[in-house]
Amino acid sequence: MQNEIKKLLNIVTRKGSSKILTFSTPHVFKLLQMLSKQKYVSRISFCNELHIGEGSVRTLISHLKQDGMVDSIRSGTFLTPKGKKFAKKFSDTITSQCTIESCNIVREKFNHAFLVKNHAGIICDGMDQRDFAILYGAKSATTLLFENNHFVFPNESKDALADDLKTKEILLEKLMPEENDTVIITSSDDPFVAEISAINSVLCTLAIN
Hints:
CATH topology of the largest domain: Gyrase A, domain 2
CATH architecture of the largest domain: 2-Layer Sandwich
């Protein structure tokens, strides 16, 4: 995934652009997610979902067009075949996400979880993932590994959700983890911050390993 994440960064920091940008790699990732789920997406939808202005959306779409990832018609912006192939590389690794309520392991009002396939081996103690999330405003982050049909904290073997079966069932149902998968959950008092910080934590984790 390192090459793909480097490509995201190149899209953001395209040479020749002198504008001060209000979007970054997590915004590009979320935009690609939106386009993967819908045939056409309007600029207004991008503004609302990415929490950036229309000028920034135009710049971001322009950068993606220069790379041949997207195109636009009156109905909205859509992924090109090249863009679909690129987006699929991410969806094959970052396969699912969900929100969860405050519980034993995450205590903020809004908590957003992403599942990363087959990457438990790259996690040390979860501190890097927390730091990556805090960079985007998260109050905290929790990393879980899926081992022997249980969610465990890094470097531990005890079922982290043994006393919280409700949360465990939600994560099992919505994320559908398998052995050696990683779950990164970030927490905030704002739902968008919880999501965008989780995306940053996931992307940075994959980028350095």
